[in-house]
Amino acid sequence: MIYNYFATVAPSLEMIALQELEQLGAKEIMPEVSGIRFQGDKKLLYRVNLWARTIFRVLLPIAEVKSFNAEQLYKSVKKIDWENYLQPEQTLAIHCTGSNQHLNHSHFTALQIKNAIIDQQREKFGKRSSVDVQQPDLLINAHIYQNNCILSLDSSGESLHRRGYRAAMGLAPLKETLAAAMLELAQWTPQLALFDPLCGSGTLPLEAALKALNIAPGLFRQRFGFQSWLDFDQALWQDLLREAKESRTSILSAPIIGSDRCAQVIQQAYSNAQACGVSDQVQFIQRELSEVEAPASEGIIICNPPYGKRVGNPQELGSLYKQLGDIFKQRFKGWTAYLLTGNKELSKQVGLKTSRRIPLDNGGLPCTLLKYELY
Predict the structure, then answer these.
(1) Whole-model pTM above 0.90?
(2) Are 98 and 189 in the same domain?
(3) Any idea where the THUMP domain is (predicted)?
């Protein structure tokens, strides 16, 4: 059976996610702001959750109902036959987005939806589901748009950017989804060396290693939302897991290296590499920025330096950006450099001409991925 799905993505990553969905086998793909509509069967739903690198969640829309105000929303939701999706012994949670004139508080909106569902259960079964906001059996996404509410089942549960391998995190780490997207935008392939001289807890090198070794990022997660759905196909899921485990490779074609001046964050990066089984492939080195050297004649050097919004003082970071520019120019001839920053003035301190500027959103902060051709 073919279903309509909706994948949520970070603003500015819609086209990257679209290409990924195409590669995974999605059909009738239609990009929207912060999301992609697509079609596929249950197998595709499971595969996208297991393999997607740039997507947050995959939703299964089940109804669009009238929601002019709280009373209309309650009555509309109660008309849906919820026993097709939820049994009283199971737990639920509601996540709301959007608003209108009368439904402008997400917690209040969620309460109306929850009350409608459990009141229906009481009338049918004499008992009701409990709410579990941490790990519900059924996570319902409700999006208010004008006087309508789109109700969807969240197949992912916890956001897919939480791969499950990164227990150790440094200050203001990149989301794994953004790191994976940056690698795509940098046109990095496993045949090219990759170096991050400000690697922190290692997100960029680790996402590169997962891609290079064909490791499905979902293999490290404990569960997905769809695993507690009433129509969950355990045999199909086990087949996909087995296929993913058998498809991984064991040797990198080119080096993937991260360095940082701080021994503690290098240890964090190494711990994360161990957690996803690539500690014998990726190299993490404690090294001052002033001491880094190119590990190959060509490759991609990519980094996410602090830009004074969450980490660092913008008045004191100018010298760091100048140093990066000098190192790019002097020690990485033949390479291509990419630098993510949310501070236009600091980027000027790099002192190199950009060949491309790509707008990105980093956790709500407008940023730019700057490309430098190093001749």
Answers:
(1) yes
(2) no
(3) 44-155
